[in-house]
Design goal:
By secondary structure, the chain is of the alpha/beta class. The protein folds into 2 domains: 166 residues, NAD(P)-binding Rossmann-like Domain (Rossmann fold, 3-Layer(aba) Sandwich); 164 residues, Rossmann fold (3-Layer(aba) Sandwich). It is built from 12 helices and 17 strands. The strands form 4 sheets. Strands 11-10-9-12-13-15-14 form a 7-stranded mixed beta sheet, sandwiched between helices. α4 links the parallel β4 and β5. α6 runs parallel beside α7 and α6 packs antiparallel against α11. The two termini are 18 Å apart. The relative contact order is 0.15.
């Protein structure tokens, strides 16, 4: 079976789905691996590293796709790419069908199967395949560095002959993988960190990492069976906003990470909150590509509103492309290894992992 690894074409995407070490492992698993020239270049992986492991390089994407049966990508295939991919091909990538319905429709009409990496279930045997968590962890780390770079202050308490510098205060909205990594990173840099999440189950994790938990009381579970946050009512969001208003307006940095699978990101930071923040403060919206947690954030832009810098970086993992590619590649390999039976990819529609990630069974 032939695997194709194309160069990512989405603007700003520097990651590659398969790094050279993983390509070599796929070959040992019995696959033939074809890679587009310079597919890994922006992530720091040269063509020579792929060929050294047994992969074959291609210049023309049409030629690459023509001989492939399985395509491994980071971002969802574009409509242009789907035009040159043959029927009965399987594509493994992030898909986000709710955001990209035209991609799903086009793939279905062309009898192309889509396996969505963002839908890997949070169960024990799928942990090694959990690409959302691996990428979110890196994004959480990098988000703190990005925000710190725009803040005109340092993070730690510092006592000098000229006087004492108070530690920076960071508020993180959402205690998922990204939020907890952001918390750990900000604490290592010396900041005081407060974390808000609708799920009281995460309070212990926040406290164990040295954060302070901002708790919103609720009379029902706001965590689904997969461990993700449920969509909440507008009444609950208003209650949450009222509670965190004081915390946000006193913060030097606010990092928002709140997402609800398959839904538009909830607005947590309003324009009124931004108005009340101190001039020079920073807001980083990690949910900006899904509608945004901040009312004033703009995808792909850094803007200053009411004296506050608002960062709308839509693809933070791509900013650390080497490590994010390595981790994603390991996630992909674990999935392919799991699905490989007798040297071929087998998709059992009754398998709990396949059921979760198979978008359109052709």
């Amino acid at each position: 079976m032939v695997i194709a690894v194309p160069k990512e074409i989405q603007s700003g995407e520097k990651r590659v789905a398969v790094v050279p070490d993983t390509a070599a492992k796929l070959i040992k698993l019995g696959y033939t691996v074809h890679v587009e020239n310079d597919a890994g270049l922006q992530a720091g992986f040269l063509n020579e590293s792929y060929t050294a492991g047994g992969a074959k390089m291609f210049n023309d994407p049409k030629e690459l796709y023509a001989g492939s049966e399985l395509i491994l990508k980071v971002q969802e295939p574009s409509l242009t790419e789907l035009e040159i991919i043959k029927p009965n091909t399987t594509i493994v990538s992030f898909v986000y069908p709710a955001v990209n319905p035209d991609v799903v429709k086009s793939a279905s009409s062309k009898q192309i199967r889509l396996l969505a990496m963002e839908s890997i279930p949070r169960i024990t045997k799928a942990q090694r395949m959990d690409a959302l968590s691996s990428q979110a962890s890196l994004a959480g780390y990098k988000s703190v560095l990005l925000a710190a770079n725009h803040l005109g202050k340092i993070f730690p308490l510092m006592m000098t002959a000229a006087g004492t510098i108070s530690p920076a205060k960071v508020v993180i909205m959402g205690a998922g993988v990204a939020g907890l990594q952001a918390l750990a990173t900000a604490r290592r840099l010396g900041a005081i960190v407060e974390v808000s999440d609708i799920r009281p189950q995460v309070k212990e994790e926040v406290l164990s990492l040295g954060g302070r938990f901002i708790e919103v009381e609720s009379d029902k579970s706001l965590q689904d069976e997969r461990g993700y946050a449920r969509e909440v009512s507008q009444e609950f969001l208003q209650k949450q906003q009222a509670l965190i208003f004081k915390h946000i307006t006193e913060a030097d940095i606010v990092i928002t990470t709140a997402l609800v699978p398959g839904k538009k990101a909830p607005v947590l930071v309003t324009e009124e909150m931004i108005r009340k923040m101190r001039p020079g403060s920073v807001v980083l919206d990690m949910a900006v590509e899904f509608g945004g947690n901040c009312e004033l954030s703009e995808s792909g832009k850094t803007v200053i509103k009411h004296g506050v810098t608002i960062l709308g970086e839509p693809n933070i993992p791509s900013l650390v492309a080497t490590h994010s590619s390595e981790l994603y590649s390991k996630n992909i390999f674990s999935l392919i290894e799991y699905l490989t039976k007798n040297g071929n990819l087998e998709l059992d529609p009754n398998d709990e992992i396949v059921k979760s990630i198979l978008i359109n069974n052709q």
